[in-house]
Design a protein that fits this description.
about 45% strand; globular; mainly beta; Immunoglobulin-like; about 425 residues; four-stranded antiparallel beta sheet; single chain; 2 domains; Methylamine Dehydrogenase, Chain H
Length: about 425
Amino acid sequence: MKTKIRFSNKFSFVILLFMVSQLLQAQWVKQNSGTSERLTNVVMLDSSTAIAVGMNQTILKTTNSGETWNYIALPWSFPMNWNCVSFADKLNGVIAGSNVITTTDGGASWEPEFYSYDKNFLSALFVDPGYILVGDDSGFVFQSIDSGKTWSSEKISVYPIRSIFLFRGIYAFGLPLYALTPHSILTKLLFPDTPSWFEKELDFFNGLGSEAYNGESCNGGGSTFLVGVQGDWRAAPVILRKQMSDTSWTRSGLYPDPDGELRGVSAPSSSTIYACGYPGLLYKTIDGGDNWILHSVPTSQSLNSIYSFNDTKGFAVGDSGTILFTSNGGLTDVDEDELSITDKFQLFQNYPNPFNPSTVISYQLAVGSFVTLKVYDVLGNEVATLVNEFMQAATYNQTFNVKTGHASFLPSGIYFYKLQAGSFTQTKKFVLLK
């Protein structure tokens, strides 16, 4: 039986104003890149200057927050594809792909560093004006400590090196450096420099066909985030989070959870993190990764990279020359505190399902309400109360763990969880497998 929800005229008017404000104020603006080439990576040098790179020798630069993008021509006739760009500061940068090139003047001119016809570099990190690292598709990491004049190399994995990034918080015994492959993450220490890499985790996605694409540590410290795709039955976007003190990675709940994959992540602070991917997926969290909001964007193209200069200003780039820009963190005129306020009540299907020992139940409230969330067995007996309090309008994630409290005595079987918020009631089924 469907539950009918009746709203007061005042509430309907508030919702109408909210919808109109979203229409009037675009969250992410699509810009004219001047190219139809696939864009693979973007970096910001300051609040208005950015460089994007892509296929067929594409290097674009803006100095006015993307109002105009200028093509940077290179003095070489042979074609090169670019996969990544990194800057140590506003002047010193590196681009890697078919080759490795560096700049010391903010991208106005570039110098080749590798003369290779069989390399495909996937990742790069310009640590400081003298220290550069690049990773290729055969598991090698190349290192230069003299701004690219000389290089050393080390094969650290059988997998491609898709992302190289630093821990960006306070450190005491050496700066952690990470290299991400599709199925593992490796680490070593810089300053002081340790001699070799060692593997931290293998196959942490635990899914058939699953792989990681990109990683980043929060600016100023906090968690490290990995993004990619996981799919036992379908391809689904996935975000993993881990703090320095954690012993394992935690998967973030994404609601809604569409088909697709995530390819880029940017963490301008410990609370605000962005992730983007295919098809036109763009998520944001403002609470350090506890809750993620799927933003509406004006494209269905794959978004391959995202870079946020701060919590509110950033670019995302993707296929067919797609460039998106936001100056307000992807928000409308409503306050950020209202980011997860919705125009309806809803109870989502738990994930994972079946589960053991824990699962996440998500629900959203259109207005502040007294909320109860309870679990029942097939006979209708109440077996657990998860929520029993007044809650403000927002989206919430509630964990149900059968290893805690009375739930530890529950046998395997079918159970039901029921949400009641004011006059709204909805029930869903889930399965416990011990």
